[in-house]
Amino acid sequence: MRIVRNGVLLVLAVPALAAGAYLLAAAVLSRLAVNDQPAAREGVEVFVCSNGIHTDLVLPAVTEAVDWTIDLPGGNFPGAGPEASHRSFGWGDRAFYLETRQWSDLRPATALSALFGRGPSVMHVYALHRPAGSPDCGVLVLDEGQYGALAAFVRRSFRRDGAGKVMPLPGSGYGTTDLFYEAVGHYSPVETCNEWTGKALRAAGVTVGAWTPFEGGVMRWLR
Question: What domain of life is recorded for the organism (predicted)?
């Protein structure tokens, strides 16, 4: 019985130790600055917005460097109207995004699939107005080279067909101002939606943590 008891305690202890190590690594690495560069004085204004759990990049729909309406035309977002000056980008697990529209919809199988990175990913895109002044958003100014690098990272995150076009999932949006697209990669505890945002910022040379699996690890550098 002692052997059985010790075995049970070990089985219970290993996940707890792993979770503790994960949280400690996230706390330390999200505070370890990468790309310690001063912010640009002039350039393209971009936003990073949070809902308290998940972060999105919010970029101008059209600039001299990048025209997102080529890949993401306004017709894909019929409820947004011509005044929608920006596009938001959020990457994540397909099943979790599409099957968990509210927390009450969350199923254990969906959570486990996302946790172990077995399913495909999607890009969630909104057409929206410039979110200046929102307490949920941080703002950055990127020079031409930085913004080009950021846009290139986002573009590479979309899965594309043989003609190089993005692959929308018709009817997948939560409303008429958003839509989901096929994306590359697999969600996991290491490659989270917030780490995708962190990677995009690091690709642009923005000062951010070395690893940002949680929302707070991203937003602490922007607020």
Answer: Bacteria
